[in-house]
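Quick question, first post here. What does this chain look like in 3D?
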Amino acid sequence: MVYDLTHLIKGDIQVWPGTPGPDIRTLFTVENHGFMETGLNLVSHTGTHIDAPAHMIKDGLTLDRLPISHFTGRAVKIDLTHCCRLIQPQDIDRLFHLEFPFEWLLLQTGWSRYWGHPGYFGSYPVLAEEAAALLCNLTLKGIGIDAPSFDAFESKNYPNHFLFLEKNILLVENLRGLEPLPNNSLIGFSALPLHYINADGAPVRAMAIT
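> Answer (accepted):
Ran it through. Tokens below.
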């Protein structure tokens, strides 16, 4: 089975408060020009997107400097829907007892059910700093979450972002549709970013294969 884990980008898509929304307009039409082309103007962290180290770290690694293989690999999904606000070390302990290697970790908080509602940017679950530090001990290409950020909405210093990005662990935010994926089992995962120069982040088409 192939699962689409990506929110559709459209003109009224939810964006982080203060971020400009996308401008999507038809520039040419088949009726008038014999072909159709669309103008796209959007911020690099629109919709389901990936954060590069350069997003937070001066002179950090940009996405365009990574091989395409870095954006795909073996993944494990962990169900954290019981965590109301903070994801604690004991909630992720099972990851350290799995008997197979994995390169990507997908955190299912269930928060994507609020996508499209004002409360989406609110008290979504985030990793406690101690839990984030533990995950840094895993050999990971990246971590994905079905919530808007790896740090609390009110955070001013973004500790989890810095913990992961300083170790070149990529972060995928605003995933959707994690519910049917098996827990604590190997699945295929890809989050392929728009390929542009000096990319601090980019929208992705995220997918899983079981």
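The chain is about 10% helix and 30% strand.
The mean pLDDT is 97.
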